[in-house]
Amino acid sequence: MNDTAQKANIGLIGAIVAVATIGGLLFGYDSGAVNGTQDGLKHAFALDEAGLGFTVGSLLIGCVFGAFFAGTLADSMGRRNVMRLAALLFLGGALVQGFAHDHTLFVIARIIGGVAVGAASVLSPAYISEVAPANIRGRMTTVQQIMIISGLTAAFVVNYYLAQAAGSSLGQLGGIEAWRWMYLMQAIPAGVFLVALFFIPESPRYLVAKQRNPEALKVLTSLFGATEGGLKLAEIQASFSTDHRPRLADIFAPGGFLGIRAIVWAGLLLAVFQQLVGINVIFYYGATLWQLAGFTENDALLINIVSGAVSIAACFITIAVIDKIGRKPLLLIGSAGMAVTLFVMVFAFSQGTLDPAGKLVLTPQMGMVAVVAANLYVIFFNVSWGPVMWVMLGEMFPNQIRGSALAVCGFAQWGANYVIAQTFPSMAKWSLTGAYTFYGVCAVISFFLVQKFIHETKGKELEAMEG
After folding, report:
1. In 326-384, which residue ranges form alpha helices assigned H by DSSP?
2. Least confident stretch, 3-12, 29-38, 432-441
3. pTM for the whole thing?
4. Reported confidence tier of residue 283, pLDDT bands at 50, 70, 90
5. Contact between 197 and 111 (Cβ < 8 Å)
């Protein structure tokens, strides 16, 4: 451990990380909660499959815009203030979703909640990167992915017990349907997030960008001590342009492809390919895979909880090694592992037959092969691309362009998420084997793109990042 890390106030940094990553927990919690509410949504709003898909996926529409505007807003209002706004929006969205009896109002509330999730998803890792020492920054930012999966798993647990207590998701508790309680329960972590954000400091990089140097020095001193804090302040000041404050136009540079800086293209690569490898499709199709392997539908929810716990364990592996072996090796390992496991799934699906209704049926042996491959895929993802993408997006950009680059990359990440989620049903109907072949090919391509275009950031100070 270097001198900077020894002098750092690890307790304060840990508290900041715990608070900032609640934003990730909110996204995970919503993703898990909505899985238990689909029967309720169909019943309450008379939805067909297409309507249900739009209603559930409308959160992602909000995420796209929340991620895009969060970066530039954060450069204007501050990282902490935008996260406060996100917490307030998520809190309001959760309450309206729980009580809404009008479908249009419900969808608007989901989009508003998505704006909050998208904003928090890009700002949390950026904020953590801006306060953590370089040699532990990867470990600290990886907590974001753990919180996403923890939120997902917590929602599975809450949904399970609410449905058990009410008899089903359509049953009532205190005069309110259980599926509505699944949305209302999201207000608890949202409220905690909002309150906790009043007890952590603003990012010193933002304060310097706003020329609020005395405040920045106070924060840096509390993080690293008086001597190191003063040195850090000088380094941060030197990293900003002297002729203008950060702005969206900073992502452009002469000679760049389409006029955009190479470092921004690298961030876009990470953001988009994290989704093109099909991770959310694996989650959506997981319950069916378990049933193909011979498990009952009732067992699927409990197995999801176990899968969530395994995913969290995979992220702890990342915490242990990311600041030792680096970001790029983990991405390469993940790409290779995901490619192999996805193509094993393709092989298993290719051995299936179609029943009279056109549904794929696997033998118990091939079903188990598909399930094991899917879970190994999830492990490879959560050891690598899951957390590492957030780590790198939070740290890889120079101070001058960080907010603007995050806006563009966050927009691309959530946009890709939405496209993959919306196209999968059609692709699966055409050919499930073909769909997973596409994701496997993307995993192969991601390996070579990382090898060529991604540069290691392990141990580098944010002020040393080049664009």
Report:
1. 327-350, 364-383
2. 3-12
3. 0.83
4. low
5. no
CA separation for the pair 102, 89 (Å, rounded): 19
Contact 158, 321 (CB under 8 A): no
> 268-285 burial string, b = 16+ CB within 10 Å, else e?
bbbbbbbbbbbbbbbbbb
| Contact present, 396 and 267 (Cβ < 8 Å) | yes
Separation CA 12–CA 381 (nearest Å): 30
Cα(373)–Cα(438) distance, rounded to whole angstroms?
16
User: 204 and 80 in contact (C-beta within 8 Å)?
Assistant: no
State both tokens at 438. 């596409």
- Distance (Å, rounded) from C-alpha 102 to C-alpha 198? 34
Judged against a pLDDT cut of 60, whether residue 1 lies above it is answered with no
Whether 136 and 6 have beta carbons less than 8 Å apart is answered as no
Q: Measured between alpha carbons, how far is residue 133 from residues 98, 224, 438 in Å?
A: 41, 9, 39
In whole angstroms, what is the distance from residue 388 CA to residue 143 CA? 11
Q: How far apart are CA 347 and CA 340, in angstroms?
A: 11
Taking the C-alpha atoms of residue 203 and residue 128, their distance in angstroms, rounded to an integer, is 9
Closest by CA position to 336, among listed 384, 297, 295: 384
Per-residue pLDDT tens digits for 123-154: 988 899 888 888 889 888 888 888 988 888 88
**Short-list 417, 435, 437, 414, CA closest to 426:** 435
pLDDT of residue 429 exceeding 60: yes
DSSP state string for 304-336: HHHHHHHHHHHHHHHHHHHHHH-HHHHHHHHHH
DSSP string, 261-314: -HHHHHHHHHHHHHHHTTHHHHHHHHHHHHHHTT--HHHHHHHHHHHHHHHHHH
Containing H/E element for 173?
Answer: strand 172-173
Count, residues in the chain:
467
Q: What is the DSSP letter of 398?
A: -
